[in-house]
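Hello,

Our lab assistant flagged a job as stuck in the queue for most of the afternoon. It eventually completed. Since we weren't sure the result was trustworthy after the delay, we are filing this so someone can double-check. Below is the sequence as submitted and the structure that was eventually returned. Let us know if re-running is recommended.
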Amino acid sequence: MAFSATGSDWAILNASPDIRYQIAATPRLHPTGPRDSPIRSVLLTNGDIDHVAGLLTLREKQKFTLFTTAAIAEVLDENPIFRALDPAFVTRRIVDLGETVEIAPGLNAELFAVPGKVPLYMEGETVETELEGEQTVGVLLSTGEKQAFYLPGCAKVTEALAERLRGAKLVFFDGTVWENEEMIRLGVGAKTGARMGHMSMAGERGSMAAFENLDVGRKIYVHMNNTNPVLDPRSPERKQVEGTGWEIAYDGMEVEL
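-- returned structure --
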């Protein structure tokens, strides 16, 4: 996702593998010169391949700042391929939890821990799926009095997280799976949503239920897996989600706050 306070200076939150296509489809992100770009920064919320692989597309000698926690920076440092991001052009900035940083002109970000797990490729014999620390973070974006939350990965809405989100004007939230055993039932995976570090949308322990009494203005699901039936506008699951006030993000979606 791309966020801006000015409309001309942009911060990318998580660099997905298809970022080249995303930039090409978004004129406001197009280069303004051979090595000039309106993209001022990239901020990572975890080290998943879906969130870091696109950094290699941004290695072409364009200046930007890469914001990460120390734990996420360590993930990148351990893989030599990310040395392709020339330090003469890409400034790496470590951000502490609770610290507010300007990620684009007029646009601030504060990182906070949310329950999650380490990336799949870093898993050991024991996997903690609701680990809270620097490996999975949510983001509070602010410009003046306007605020929005971005949480593309979250294993559980804890009481502390619920209080943080209560009364928010806009929340982008993890919508990976509809129900916990969705991928197993469809025969496309051997793990539940919870095992992957994601809440399901449906059910008494799902995110729709968790948000029922939080009085959030706009609730938008992001990061849907291709097994999630809400991607079909005609599905009963889509109608159920929209009936509870949620929106389903789509490619090219624009939100103004």
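-- support follow-up --
The delay was a queue issue, not a problem with the job. The result is valid. The radius of gyration is 18 Å. The chain has a mean pLDDT of 94.
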